[in-house]
Design a protein that fits this description.
Chain A is mainly alpha-helical. Chain A is built from 22 helices and three strands. Chain A has a three-stranded mixed β-sheet, with helices on both faces. In chain A, helix 16 packs across helix 18. Chain A is globular, with a radius of gyration of 23 Å. Chains A and B meet through helix 1, helix 2 and strand 1 of A and helix 1, helix 2 and strand 1 of B.
Chain lengths: 498, 498
């Protein structure tokens, strides 16, 4: 081991410890903490954040990183130093006091946003959102390389190698092909019945079957935990402690597919090897690659008729009253029903990426075109009407529905759609390598999971999503597979063609 | 605010944050963490411990503490500086590398102990215990003031103002008076029936009634959490996040009284004022004072017939099958049944402190008299036979039953008995100030709780337990109240006199 690299270790260990503690506090806050704990606990989390900041921007770390870069490091070591250097540059370019102001604003912003959403009152959130946009642009300008656009700086944080140019092409393809296709689907005469998915589905039964399906797709309860939170999410302390949440309501498919979705995220983190976990390259490659795995499990595996062949009886047994008389085919149609709607997190597979496209277009306008924040609700509504044919009646089901902007996260949304497209490209390739549907029908998900582990999960952050995609499928990112997958699947279901 | 004191604040905040994070990791580990998480997570916790050590022993902290001591500080500030100075001296007298070795040994020790207990095999734990005793003595010798005995150094950590001289008198009184009294009780012809406390008590019903009783005695679920762990405990992040656990088995009184016991601990922490919480004086005054509150709630309140008058029907309603035909009087007798037994944590109120006395006598021998560790099982068994009339058939129900020594905690046990005695002294005084049983009968526990809050909880660590006891009751610690309380209560129950 290089001497400079060795000297970096205590700093890396400390940064890792502060980060892991923060993850545990977040998890606890979402799943368990008592409602009045917030203010006192956030002091503790604030101190841990500052400590993290101090370690990463320590002058000694900077010096050691520089020395490391001049040395001949192994692949993993070099990747860790690269991640550290990036994180350091990101943090040190923003003055500490401005960063603190912004963090505070973002934390208050989330509360103000939650109130505004409850009251369907965009105006009470608009001044905060304006400030958040201002800070975001200012920070991006500190960090921009010469000639780099501000929104590209933000996109790079979530998805390396994807800038506006690539994304304009990607979303352009979706706009041109999916929007008219969706119109055909919604005008089709095929009617899909799905009322049996809603009813008196008891929480404890949903939990039991959720645990069954989590384990069935590969979640490991010896290295993981499943709990309840308002909005489902996945987090992890390391590769032997990966945690998912779900929530239960009268729609059984909500918890069912959120469990399979989060299990996809979790299986990624469980697949990180021991030598990478608890290092800066010990997580998923990117937001988009993570989302590719969760949506792969949720949709390509979980909403596949072949998946249900060996296990649908399990579900019927648990809910005989609701599903005894519903045949497999009818159930699979119901879980794939297309219905353009207002809320992204409840969107079906076909319309999902159009929700994301709207956010991408608006973010670009906010960051690059000085869009007046006050005009957001109308622009939002217009775009929903144009692309999805539905118009929100208030801001709660419109521009206020997502938490991201209130936390100061801009540039995150595109990853959701990219993930779906990565997944479709992987699926296309995998079908050439294995009898994908045959494996599902035989209940052999392990073979599919093992392919993903070997080709994606085990690399952690050693490669970018784009590199990985290229190495696995032999082809650069190509959104056409995604369109083809959707058109084939939903064309078949609704008896329409492109 | 003094300038030096002000400069201390960032150090104190960091120490507090590291400590709070450690508390959350411990909580998580006991209640939720997946079983394979241990090794990776303990690296994180180890780093947080080292960070805490570094802050407290920072030369700059030492300098500032010295400056503070020369200044005129307010009561709270002075107390914080005093606690910090004590913690600093405690940590800095032990060489960092030896402390690390010891921490690692203690952490391994707990695993080795757990295995040894499972296998009823003391010999596999003895070598580790020997080393732990050696380290403990060595560390105590580093910290001893001139002429101070080693065991007194340890006792001081848990209960300031209580050394071997005081404790010899305390336990001497118990030995002389309680041991013969217990003999009379066990030979009494009164038979107490309690078989109805055991049976098919469903976990979810025990949980529901446990939540009711926690709230009834004053636990605040807006500032607290109740969960399940193998062994019940209480912990807290601050005064707005206090957490208790319990566990459920076929004995309904186990969970019922563990919930009331832990609620007593929790109410103490919930009663710490905002200006003290998240500081070094923001916890209970001492182990003993803490135990005084938990045992006060469990026994003096919870096993009091008057307590059950307004709420016994609630319990009967929840468990009609088991308790419908059991009258109040019969139930109260059952929950106060005396039965000398082998396991401390399952002991009744009368025999409890004799279990503690045995541990005190043995710890003294280990630390002060070089007792050969290999002889422990026999000495343990002999003492149980002498004082309680029962003899363990193996080490699991004998010397291996408690976790404390495996964690390197020596000097902790006496606090358990002191707490009971503090509680009895408070009870004696409070009965002169209020109609204690009348309040319980009227369901007005709030008045009792408020007395404790005003006279004890609100001071945090500003005073020692002994000072507080004196100020509240007007008298120095006096164990006779404890004996009198037990003799009166159990004499009445079993128709015997001293």
């Amino acid at each position: 081991m290089s001497k400079a690299y060795e000297q970096l270790q205590p700093y890396l260990e400390r940064a890792q410890a502060f980060q892991t503690a923060k993850v545990l506090f977040e998890w606890d806050n979402e799943t368990l903490a008592p409602k009045k704990a917030g203010q006192n606990t956030s002091k503790v989390v604030g101190t841990l954040s500052s400590e993290y900041f101090s370690v990463i921007t320590d002058p000694q770390v900077k010096k050691l990183v520089k020395e490391c870069r001049e040395e001949d490091l192994g692949q993993v070591e070099a990747a860790i130093v690269r991640e550290l250097a990036e994180e350091m540059e990101k943090l040190e370019r923003v003055p500490a006091n401005e960063y603190r102001e912004f963090s505070q604003l973002a934390s208050e912003g989330t509360r103000i946003w939650a109130d505004a959403r409850r009251n369907k009152d965009f105006e009470s959130f608009a001044p905060t959102l304006k400030k958040l946009v201002e800070y975001t642009k200012k920070f991006a300008s500190y960090r921009a390389k010469e000639g780099q656009k501000l929104y590209d700086v933000l996109l790079e944080d979530y998805e390396k190698g994807f800038d506006m140019e690539t994304l304009d092409r990607f979303f352009g393809t979706l706009r041109q092909q999916l929007v008219p296709f969706l119109k055909k689907v919604t005008e089709s005469e095929v009617e899909i019945e799905d009322d049996f998915l809603t009813g008196d589905y008891k929480d404890e039964d949903q939990e039991a079957i959720g645990r069954f399906f989590a384990e069935y797709v590969g979640f490991d309860f010896d290295r993981g935990v499943m709990a309840v939170s308002a909005h489902p999410f996945t987090t992890n302390l390391h590769n032997k402690d990966v945690r998912v949440t779900t929530s239960y309501n009268r729609h059984v498919d909500d918890s069912l597919f959120s469990v399979i979705h989060e299990s996809g995220h979790a299986i990624y983190e469980l697949g990180i090897p021991d030598e990478l976990t608890q290092t800066l390259v010990g997580g998923g490659a990117s937001m988009g690659m993570h989302e590719s795995q969760s949506r792969f499990f949720e949709n390509i595996i979980g909403r596949n008729e072949a998946f249900w062949v060996p296990v649908y009886a399990k579900l019927q047994e648990r809910f005989p009253q609701q599903l005894e008389d519903v045949p497999l085919e009818k159930f699979v149609k119901a879980i794939n029903k297309v219905e353009p709607s207002l809320i992204r997190t409840q969107a079906d597979e076909l319309t999902y990426s159009l929700h994301v496209m709207i956010r991408y277009e608006i973010e670009k306008m906010l960051i690059e075109e000085d869009l007046d924040v006050d005009k957001l609700p109308e622009i939002w509504a217009d775009k929903y009407e144009e692309y999805l044919g539905v118009r929100p009646k208030d801001a709660a089901e419109g521009v206020l529905q997502d938490i991201h902007w209130s936390q100061g996260s801009f540039g995150y949304f595109p990853s959701y759609a990219l993930g779906s497209a990565f997944g479709a490209q992987l699926y296309h390739y995998m079908k050439g390598q294995m009898d994908f549907e045959g494996l599902l029908r035989a209940g052999e998900i392990g073979t599919i999971r093992e392919f993903l582990r070997q080709h994606i999960h085990q690399y952690g952050k050693l490669k970018t999503s784009r590199q990985m995609l290229k190495e696995v499928t032999g082809e650069d990112f190509n959104p056409q597979y995604y369109i083809d997958y959707l058109v084939e699947k939903y064309g078949r279901l609704y008896g329409v063609t492109m």
